[in-house]
Amino acid sequence: MTDIPQIAPRDKAEILAQALPYIRKFHGKTMVIKYGGNAMTDPELQADFAEDVVLLKLVGMNPVVVHGGGPQIEQALNRLGKKGEFIQGMRVTDAETMEVVEWVLAGEVQQDIVGLINQAGGKAVGLTGRDGGMIRARKLKMVDSKDPTKEHDVGQVGDIIAIDPAVVKALQDDQFIPVISPIGFGEENESYNINADVVAGKLATVLKAEKLVLLTNTPGVLDKQGQLLTDLTAREIDDLFADGTISGGMLPKISGALDAARSGVNSVHIIDGRVPHSMLLEILTEQAYGTMIRSR
Ligand code: ADP
Ligand code: MG
Question: Cys bridge to 92: 43, 85, 201, 208, which one at CB 3.0-4.6 A?
Fold first, then answer.
């Protein structure tokens, strides 16, 4: 943790006191946080993130972490001489890529986050969608965004059939912090690679979470001129899809966010994970950060 010498003690106390209404309001509430992937690049930011998660838990909230791993998967594929390919924001996943995805997500990224949270004084437990039969999936049928008669084969990319949150709830009740890799299982026990934002959105819904916070590597959703859009409704999102303002990884991110907002998650935010403690600022201060997604 970095010291903040330029802030007077009186102001520090004021800042702490201002968090109280939020701590009270969110006591016992579930917060689903998507981390990893592009927001997880700098070691200092990672340590800050882990501290924030532990703080939320200690003041009585129930943080649940879902992680991604785009850049980490890309690196591993490159080491094997493979190059990642994306269609409409989804990674084309052949059998070999699926193996890499599983070992990078569950073996590397998840365990890094678990270690950092534990180091910060929390009790994190890593899970994949297989654990406790949590994430049942099937092969995603991807319809072309411009031509609905055309379909893309993206391999073992999963479409979520259902999420059983029992294992997450059991861990929460026992003071553990679940850290979930977005891997689902199919009818034949086959593995599916699922976009982490989509998993986070659906999990927030089934857990009846108070908040869904998606940390990424942009200030939020940007308009055509690159300006931050602080607030977006479903209608405005449709327009941004239609005119191509939203592309790549932002497509599944917004879909996951909108899904959660429409299914009763009270507040859904896409924020900049490159800003130190951005998640804590979003949850414990009145200041708005990034883009808020509204169902209407
Ligand atoms: P993450 O690892 O956080 O999921 P992704 O690369 O999957 O990151 O998604 C975030 C990316 O989406 C941004 O870095 C940006 O390149 C891209 N993107 C596409 N359209 C937009 C937009 N309108 N506003 C912000 N980012 C966008
Ligand atoms: Mg992504």
Answer: 85
